[in-house]
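Check out one such.
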Amino acid sequence: RKTRILVANAPEEIGGVTAWRMFWPLRHLAHKYHDLVDIQYSRGQIFPFEFYQTDILLCYRPSEPAHLAVMQQAKTVGCKIVCDYDDDYLNLAVGHPAYWSLGTRKHIIQQALELTDLLWVSTEALAQVYKHANTLVLPNAMLQDDLQNHPADWRKKTFVWAGSDAHREDVDVYGETYRALLRRADRFVWINFMPTWAVSVSAEKNTRVDLQPWIHTERYLEWMRTNEVTAIWKPLLTNQFNRGKTNIAWIVATACGAIC
């Protein structure tokens, strides 16, 4: 019979890193091995009887007491548990935007790891952080068919930064690099977040600078190609949390024929 997998995540927008770590790989898995796996998704509440119909419980970033309760119930009836962590939630610095929601929950994450049969992480650095006895490094990736087969046109230079205010410090420290980039760019686009100082700097350089609302992950590559992006800028401070970061920006740039 098919292996039955229950994805424990509550319904959410299929976007951001969740698409890279959960929805895209699982969609590919379901299509390629449809005769071997049966993948079901939680609709926000998992009833105890569902664990009797499940072989593997798949959890993404478990970090709340309710997550532990679900994992413990699954264990009681013999389910195997696979967890995925794609960031270093054991070393969030005090003051980080996610500190109160994740940085204060180390004890919960440690208990979740104790219940986990197989841990998925996105980088070797994260494998060293979580130190689970049964860890599989699954790097973020893109199918070859999704890659662009020609480089971007550098006659019109459009540079992009994409992210949230969680990376405010990363961009603040590299303000001078931003000024240097503006001297080379015809257009610079901030996606989802732009620091306030970038407005005055942009005026100094007389370069067109835009703030673009968040772009759904399913449309992100299309937007990048339509706007003929030539480079993605993703500065990161050197710290313990950032050492676990993945190369999604580089993958996206490569898929669009751009550089990162």
About this structure: The two ends are 45 Å apart (CA to CA). The first strand starts at residue 3 and ends at 7. The beta strands are 3-7, 37-41, 56-60, 80-85, 118-121, 135-137, 158-162, 187-191, 208-212, 231-232. The mean pLDDT is 91.
